[in-house]
């Protein structure tokens, strides 16, 4: 793949996972407003979000392997993927005192990753400049 193709892939997957995290927060908000449909949607979307995080981690790992991403970005994605798994466990155990702040931290991390992938050029483009 070309550096441009890697950049498009990383931008796409990061943006999609971040948008899914926004949906997850909206489902949580519906739950807090008293809608049990919000709970169902929030519970169903958790594993979807975890799968997206894992896919994002794998994409960044492949990009790193081919010199198009940094090891730090792979570690950040892996940490957020593990955090998402913990988040699901906390939610099922109804430990909201940790579930809610961890969810906020995960969304913030995804937004930061999305901003970074959209503002920083790929490694190959940095070397060529």
Structural description of this entry:
By secondary structure, this protein is mainly α. It has helices at 3-32, 36-65, 71-92, 96-119, 123-128. The protein is elongated. The two termini are 19 Å apart. The mean pLDDT is 91.
SSE inventory with pairings:
Layout: H1 3-32, H2 36-65, H3 71-92, H4 96-119, H5 123-128
Describe this structure in a few short sentences.
The protein is mainly alpha-helical and 129 residues long. The protein starts with a helix and ends with a helix. It is 87% helix and 0% strand.
Largest sheet: none
Low-confidence stretches: none
Q: What characteristic shape results from the CA principal axes? A: elongated
Q: Kindly name the structural category.
A: mainly alpha
Key phrases:
129 residues; mainly alpha; 5 helices; 87% helix; elongated
């Amino acid at each position: 793949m070309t550096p441009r193709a890697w950049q498009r892939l990383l931008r796409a997957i990061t943006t999609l996972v971040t948008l899914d995290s926004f949906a997850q927060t909206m489902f949580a908000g519906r739950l807090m407003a008293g809608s049990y449909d919000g709970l169902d949607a929030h519970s169903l979307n958790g594993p979807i979000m975890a799968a997206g995080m894992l896919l994002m981690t794998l994409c960044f790992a492949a990009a790193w392997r081919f010199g198009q991403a940094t090891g730090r970005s792979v570690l950040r994605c892996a940490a957020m993927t593990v955090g998402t798994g913990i988040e699901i466990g906390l939610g099922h155990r109804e430990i909201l005192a940790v579930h809610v702040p961890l969810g906020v931290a995960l969304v913030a991390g995804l937004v930061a990753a999305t901003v970074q992938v959209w503002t920083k050029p790929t490694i190959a483009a940095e070397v060529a400049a």
